[in-house]
Amino acid sequence: MYKLVLNVREDRIYQAFVIMIEKLIYGNKYILKPLLQELKVMSHADNLTQTQDIELKVEKNKEKLQVLTSLMTKGYLEPGLYNKQNNELHLETAKLKAQKEALYYSITGSMSKVSELDKLLKYVAKTKKLEGFDEEVFNWFVDKIIVFTPTEIGFSLKCGLVLKERMER
């Protein structure tokens, strides 16, 4: 007995998965290896630059706060103006720290996808041929299945790729 997913039989999904993995086995050096190298370069360089920019801005805000405090203690600044500028600098610093935290979440998410892609690449590089559907392999790599049409589905992989496969009716 086969389960139906929007009129797609489970055995057709299994066949499509096997075909997709076999394509990756034979084409991994043209698809997965270049993608992995590109992801590693992109994620590290861009994120590092953004993190450094944010840290520089936070340091400048600290310096501005010190100057502001110094001017206030020497009596060159009115308390109302000091409070206004002090609050603005603290608010900007909080925003910068939130951006930095969001960037770190993005970095760890990218690293996770790179790690998943590396795992997939290692699997297909050492596998010569998939003899049939393997539920364990399916669970290692597939995040979800997307049904585009009754004859076309997509496998959303844990590494972030979505690969389409055609199926016979």
Give helix % range.
Answer: over 70%
Rg, nearest Å: 26 Å
Mean pLDDT: 83
The assigned structural class equals: alpha+beta
End-to-end separation in angstroms reads 17 Å
Number of domains: 1
Number of helices: 3
Number of strand segments: 5
Describe the sheet with the most strands: 3 strands, antiparallel
Strand order, sheet with most strands:
3-4-5
Give the amount of beta strand, in percent.
5-15%
Which ranges are low-confidence, i.e. pLDDT below 50, for 5 or more consecutive residues? Answer: 1-5
Would you kindly provide a written description of the structure presented here, covering whatever features stand out?
This protein has one domain (4-166). It has three helices and five strands, in the order ββαααβββ. It has helices at 10-73, 79-126, 135-141; strands at residues 4-5, 8-9, 142-149, 152-157, 162-166. The protein is elongated and about 80 Å long.
